[in-house]
Amino acid sequence: MNAESEKRTLGPGPTPDNLLHSGSEGEFTAEDLVLASGRDVNPKSMAWAERRLAEKGRKSLDELLP
């Protein structure tokens, strides 16, 4: 991949494939869980994600991803 293809584009449009990943095989945060759920990142959704991570651990992301 060249440097240009690794840049994240700002603005409307889909996320480039090279920036997408799925599964919970790596580390993830409450913010990742919020985004995977389709919610906006805000204090309420972050609190939801932190509770869900505390309750279900890694399974919390697996349940949201295909």
Automatic annotation (TrEMBL):
Q: Superkingdom, according to UniProt?
A: Bacteria
Q: What is the lineage of its organism?
A: Bacteria, Bacillati, Actinomycetota, Actinomycetes, Kitasatosporales
> What's the protein called, per UniProt?
Uncharacterized protein
Annotated region (Disordered), positions in chain: 1-26
| Native species | Streptomyces solicathayae
